[in-house]
């Protein structure tokens, strides 16, 4: 035997059984050989201690209003857990002491999940494990001790596990020391010292509920314009048409993977239940949005939330090229709950919004040279270059477009301005590919048709114009240039180069010849919904002048001159007669007046007055002398 306080051996019986402590159980003494020590072995009574768990209320309601375990700070579910003890035995003490340890929500914690309740004794929080003090248990009846189990949070996680029972486990032991000299009883070895029991939550269903969730997505009325629209919103609404739904979660997934989640706004003013939304990652490590219902979703209750996404050009084209862009944004919304879904088919909805690529194009042209004068011999070619600058002002790239160039080839008088292969379309930056799609019929039939439509007038015109009235003008060459991707604020340059035959201009009879080319931008059908804000048209003109200006002969009507002379003579005669009748040609009165002036010394008096005025100083002359 292992030495203990000098004891070398043990086991020598030195007495007969004797009830030393008067507890009706025989005791005896045992001596230790060569140790000069005697041990008194007292016999303890054997009791059968039993325990049980009680819950108040028996089923946990989803609100704690009016319950003993309730607190004023929140109405979360709670339950009062009572641990009750009683014991039996022959010739046992009238009371004994026991303590216990209570573990909360053991089924959940056994699955390595977070427990749903905390244990409280009075106002002290003991988290998930409560260890009691010693409790005195009377043999006359059952003795109970109680704690409060309060649900920590009624989040979606809580409601998603509401079908799992709330289980507790209590383990007890008798006090290790006796009191008042009474021998401590011992527990019957065949009676367990631990017990487990649990309760459930009041769901309003017979066991597991059967909800019926339906989801509907509504997209905003505005459109998504690539490069212009910053954010876009979808409104998601889900309603329960079945039994109460617990742990409802709405998952919003941009399945097109080309928009970034910004925020979620529950539409509480519309009657929606409270939602908690956050960005999360799904099982495939993709970004999704979780919107959780923080309460029970009863029949006809609904949730509504506006999900807003970043749809800038940077978000739509993140890590991809233009050729891989998707022309749409697709949202998929899925609602789920604990229980047996009545009709899973309407738990999901999908809505797609097209991405429009709107480009505002500008086109301008310049002629080189702008003007030219024909040679004296009129047998040369005149080379002109009409340079067109095609510019994308945005906001979107233009993935495919075509520019149609119309070049006059035949005049209204059927003169051939441009011979075959006398024109070139040059893409300076190699961003376009050009082909001829319409060549005017230079055969006799067409020339005769034009001749019959032309005016036959020998008069000299001041100017002559070669222009295409439309892209299907039979007198014009039409060239089509396909332009590849043109980014915002990017341009492409295309030159229209042509040779004009001087002899075809018939310029001797005019002072100016105007040669126009026309450029029209048109969209091209592609997999992207391109939208040119307007088809743009530009014209460029070259001025051609003769070697010398032509002064046209003008006819004068001789009868106009003869009539004017006759009218003048008649008017002169009439005016002379009128003056004669008025006495204009009679001068007798003037002779009488002159005779009177001589006889009355009129001239002498006038002379004296003039001399008198000259002899007096003037005011201004005085002022100057000072």
UniProtKB/TrEMBL annotation:
GO BP of this protein: cell adhesion mediated by integrin; cell-cell adhesion; cell-matrix adhesion; integrin-mediated signaling pathway
Residue intervals of the Integrin alpha first immunoglubulin-like domain: 45-202
Transmembrane region(s): 558-580
Location of the protein in the cell: Membrane
A single Gene Ontology CC term: external side of plasma membrane
Sample GO molecular function, one term: integrin binding
InterPro entries: Integrin_alpha, Integrin_alpha_C_CS, Integrin_alpha_Ig-like_1, Integrin_alpha_N, Integrin_dom_sf
UniProt KW Manganese keyword: no
Topology in the lipid bilayer: Single-pass type I membrane protein
SUPFAM superfamilies: Integrin alpha N-terminal domain, Integrin domains
Keyword terms of this UniProt record: Glycoprotein, Integrin, Membrane, Transmembrane, Transmembrane helix
Protein name in the entry: ITGA9
High-level lineage: Eukaryota, Metazoa, Spiralia, Lophotrochozoa, Mollusca
